[in-house]
Amino acid sequence: MFYTCPSCGAINRIPDDQHNQQGQCGKCKSALFNATPVALNDTGFQRFLAKNDLPVLVDFWAEWCGPCKMMGPIFKELCAEQQHQLRFAKVNTEQAQMVSQQFGIRSIPTLILFRQGKEVDRLAGALPAPQLRQWIAAALQK
Ligand SMILES: [Zn+2]
């Protein structure tokens, strides 16, 4: 399974039966599972989707958006909980305008779940942790 390092972006290959364990980046030696969503920008976005075999959940947000700020800690909490099942990433829509435009982000927060680089489901608006957990579980079944 391919898994990009959250710290340096290096592509790591983890044996499929070992991705539930803690791992270290082969290049920079930092933890591969650090319970923190990865911040993505226009340049790194496609590569991140292409080089991770786990589904990727992206939170499109902005600094000025109140509901986004409310959802930030919830997203991080779920990341710590489910980081071995999916990758959690954040896109600042003010900085990553190309990506935001490409996916037609009209309101924030918007969450998009990608599998093998393709959009599987999206959610507009913030949800409390239990409902967000349910939405993720349902989206992963699609
Ligand atoms: Zn690294």
TrEMBL record:
InterPro entries attached to this UniProt entry: Thio2_N, Thioredoxin, Thioredoxin-like_sf, Thioredoxin_CS, Thioredoxin_domain
Q: Which Pfam families match?
A: Thioredoxin, Zn_ribbon_Thio2
Q: Per UniProt, which keywords does this protein have?
A: Disulfide bond, Electron transport, Metal-binding, Redox-active center, Transport
**Where would I find the Thioredoxin domain in this sequence?**
29-141
Q: Which PROSITE patterns match?
A: THIOREDOXIN_1, THIOREDOXIN_2
Metal-binding as a keyword? Answer: yes
| PANTHER family named in the record | GEO12009P1 (PTHR45663), THIOREDOXIN 2 (PTHR45663:SF40)
Can you tell me which family this protein belongs to? Belongs to the thioredoxin family.
Name used for this protein in its record: Thioredoxin
Q: Which organism is it from?
A: Oceanobacter antarcticus
Gene name in the database record: trxC
